[in-house]
UniProtKB/TrEMBL annotation:
It comes from the Eukaryota. SMART domains: SRP54. Residues 16-135 form the SRP54-type proteins GTP-binding domain. The keyword GTP-binding applies. GO terms for molecular function: GTP binding; GTPase activity. One of its GO terms (biological process) is SRP-dependent cotranslational protein targeting to membrane. Coiled coil: none annotated. This is SRP54-type proteins GTP-binding domain-containing protein. One of its GO terms (cellular component) is signal recognition particle. It holds the Pfam family SRP54. It comes from Hordeum vulgare subsp. vulgare (Domesticated barley). The keyword Manganese does not apply.
Amino acid sequence: MLDAGKPAFAPKKGKSCVVMFVGLQGSGKTTTCMKFAHYHQKIGFKPALVCADTFRAGAFDQLKQNATKIMVPFYGSYMESDPVKIVVEGVERFRKENCDLIIVDTSGRHKQEAALFEEMRQVRSNETRPGNICDGW
Ligand SMILES: Nc1nc2c(ncn2[C@@H]2O[C@H](COP(=O)(O)OP(=O)(O)O)[C@@H](O)[C@H]2O)c(=O)[nH]1
Ligand SMILES: [Mg+2]
């Protein structure tokens, strides 16, 4: 998405596109997810937000409050600790609702941890399948 050597990534209206935000804790993922959702909503997309941060306390509340403010539908759980499960359920739900930009907010860590990379790989591999036409993953 941010590779200057490639054409700029752009989701396509009416197609089911999933974008996953990955980064260290506090790097601005959740805030940027909101800006990304809000911007695309204003130009005619139907965005949705999935909270796959089950690591940091308050992460779902943060997403929920901000998503409510910009009036974008969201999915998450206070009980479920497996981010993969939440993403599979959330993406499935929003695909059914014809959302064309499904934004997945993931958890961060204080430094690059092997466990975090593994979690991101699992979240990603569960959602890269036919029907996901964007290669923004
Ligand atoms: N100044 C500034 N602060 C930001 C920006 N984006 C996020 N923040 C702040 O950085 C902190 C962490 O942001 P958050 O989106 O929760 O990061 P996350 O842990 O990666 O999801 C919060 O206090 C945000 O308000 C930005 O573009 N500029
Ligand atoms: Mg966050």
